[in-house]
Amino acid sequence: MSGFSKKVLVALIAFAVLTMSASQVLAAKEVRFASVSWTGVTTKTELAVRILRSLGYEASNTMVSVPIAFKALDTGEADIFLGNWMPTQATMANKYFDKGTIEPLVASMPGAKYTLAVPTYAYEGGLQHFKDIAKYADKLGNKIYGIEEGNDGNQIIQSMIDKDMFGLGDFQLIPSSEAGMLSQVQSFTKDERWIVFLGWAPHHMNEMIDMKYLDGSTSETFGKNDGTATVYTIVRDGFVEENKNVAKFLKNLIFPISMMNQIMTTLHEKDGLKPVDAGLDWVKAHPEVYKGWLEGVTTISGEPALPAFEQYLETVN
């Protein structure tokens, strides 16, 4: 090989290495969240996106249904999902965990609640347990109200009906949006009509509706502990190894139940306020929380994360 040819070959190799390095840097800068249209998950995800953007990352959020969120992580089309409610999503999640394409990263919100609920007047009237629902079929119109189609909670309710668990074989699941379901519940409570619906905490429904959660959940339904749940942050396989700084941030990103209840109540009281704005207002008032989130985290260029995020907060009205 001539000297000229060797120089050309060396130049081509150097160019290829530089191109690969550049593409790796770009890939490392991109952080893709999948979320669902639940107020809490939206708020948490948009907060995480804003924080990462302040650190120099190209963070994005795509809103989909729960099954699609899992599928997006499975296929590598998304990196992170902050709404893995366990054990209620176990049937949906475990197949991906077992497959190895998705991994749980951290319990980001322990002590949550996710199960069937009723207005307090219905509870005091005798509807206190899953086995009581069928007793009051006439009062309930043989209906149980859920949220969006394909949601894991809806799937559990439908399975209970299909298997005639607790004598619910003649009942019908009424799917709706989160807002639509809550509007229906509030409409019923005005006249003290009886209704069974999918409830959860944290959520402003616990403040705006005088409600009680039913006992009787099993491992086949919403979990053995009467619907007490833990929310996990989950990531696609390989994400932690490729993005150690972001993974450190995500492990720190723990959301107290009280924080989310307060944010959701503010959103309910202030019509038109966006979830991310309510979240940022709360974060600005609680620096001890965001300082914990950013402990040991850096910007994309390796500088301490805290000053960069606080500089961003100064620009937020």
From TrEMBL:
- One Pfam family of this protein, by short name? OpuAC
Annotated ABC-type glycine betaine transport system substrate-binding domain residues: 29-284
**What InterPro entries does this protein's entry cite?**
ABC_choline_sub-bd (IPR017783), ABC_Gly_betaine_transp_sub-bd (IPR007210)
Instruction: Return the protein name.
Output: Substrate-binding region of ABC-type glycine betaine transport system
Tree of life domain: Bacteria
Name one molecular function that GO assigns to this entry: choline binding
Q: Which GO terms describe its biological process?
A: choline transport
- Tell me which UniProt keywords the record has, alphabetically: Signal
Question: Organism source for this protein?
Answer: Desulfohalobium retbaense (strain ATCC 49708 / DSM 5692 / JCM 16813 / HR100)
Q: Where is the signal peptide?
A: 1-27
Write out the GO cellular component annotations: ATP-binding cassette (ABC) transporter complex; periplasmic space
Is Signal given among the entry's keywords?
A: yes
